[in-house]
Design a protein that fits this description.
By secondary structure, this protein is α/β, with parallel strands linked by helices. It is about 40% helix and about 25% strand.
């Protein structure tokens, strides 16, 4: 196998800015969710925030990208399918992937347009509110799929956010079909409570019969199962996925390996920025199970990694942090 994980999803350049709840109210930003916006709305938000941010930093982002990046930093060999434009943000994004050792369908050429951008607003309670202009990512399609790279992978990882784009959704479905036809396992994240609430039919199309592995947080899982009961939710997820991981925030996580349900102990930390926590969990988890570890061990590493990333700004950890997490969680 050439690749451990083949990811497909949006290519976004994130700008993180510290705000307070009054700012969110003044800008009419819905707290704690991802909202799709156009360029004009993003410009309005930037105008409101000018000269105001305590902290602003650029990072390559997009949910699946964050997970692929994390898995690569732990030591996995990965491929990422996305769409960026021939602009400064597009070059920044591709260079970031290259630095992390991730192969990409767009390393040799880019298209005319605007690379997707995400304004990530971090409030004092560490909650992140995302305002995303997809730009050229909105037209991600099956043209961006690398069939050979899928066949050379252990897992195909699909972000649920692709459901918002008709061509993105079709690309996700096609990538899953190619994987299944070639004995490659499939993983998908539900991505956001809003995706479950407003795009459930589309997500069902992407999931098809079942996925091998589903990632979701508690709100997404309960929304998917249409239940307030975690026990009922777990039973419902078994109809959707052969295996799954549900993150429970400060309460840890639950993982199901197809036979055994395991409670993953929480790691008590002081969170300052929850942006990328779920992505980090998925990336660390996928790294572990593609490197011979059990779901319980993968859950332990993923939980510790996501608890670590929320104690700092941005969706990334430093190289030495990955080494320390592997030693702590997996005795590497």
């Amino acid at each position: 196998m050439k690749y451990h994980i083949y990811g497909i999803g949006a290519a976004l350049v994130d700008t993180e800015i510290e705000v307070n709840d009054e700012d969110l109210k003044a800008m009419s930003v819905e707290k704690g969710v991802m909202t799709l916006v156009d360029q004009q709305r993003q410009d309005e938000l930037n105008t409101h925030l000018q000269g105001h941010s305590v902290y602003a930093k650029l990072a390559s982002g997009g949910s699946a990208c964050n997970s692929i990046f994390a898995a690569s930093c732990f030591g996995a060999n990965n491929f990422y399918s996305c769409k960026v434009a021939d602009d400064d943000n597009g070059r920044f994004f591709l260079n970031d992937l290259k630095t992390a050792g991730v192969d990409c369908n767009q390393q040799d050429h880019s298209d005319t347009g605007i690379t997707g951008k995400c304004l990530v607003l971090i409030s004092p309670d560490a909650e992140r509110s995302m305002n995303t202009h997809l730009g050229i990512s909105e037209s991600l399609s099956s043209a961006q799929i690398d069939e050979q790279a899928i066949c050379d992978s252990q897992f195909v990882y699909i972000e649920g956010y692709l459901v918002t784009s008709p061509t993105g959704k079709e690309a996700a479905i096609q990538a899953k079909q190619i994987a299944e036809q070639n004995g490659v396992k499939t993983a998908l994240s539900l991505s956001d409570p809003g995706m479950v609430e407003f795009f459930k039919d589309g997500l069902n199309e992407m999931i098809g019969d079942k996925v091998d592995l589903l990632f979701c947080n508690e709100d997404e899982a309960k929304g998917w199962a249409n239940s307030d009961s975690l026990d009922d939710t777990i039973e419902a997820l078994k109809q959707t996925a052969k295996t799954f991981a549900i993150t429970l925030g400060a309460k840890g996580a639950i993982v199901f390996d197809g036979t055994l349900l395991t409670n993953i102990e929480p790691n008590t930390v002081q969170a300052i920025d929850t942006n990328g926590a779920g992505d980090m969990f998925a990336g660390a988890f996928l790294y572990a199970i593609t490197h011979g570890h059990s779901y319980a061990e993968a859950g332990k590493l993923a939980s510790l990694a996501s608890a670590t990333v929320v104690t700092q700004y941005g969706p990334r950890l430093a190289a030495e942090q990955h080494e320390q997490l592997l030693k702590t969680a997996l005795n590497h």
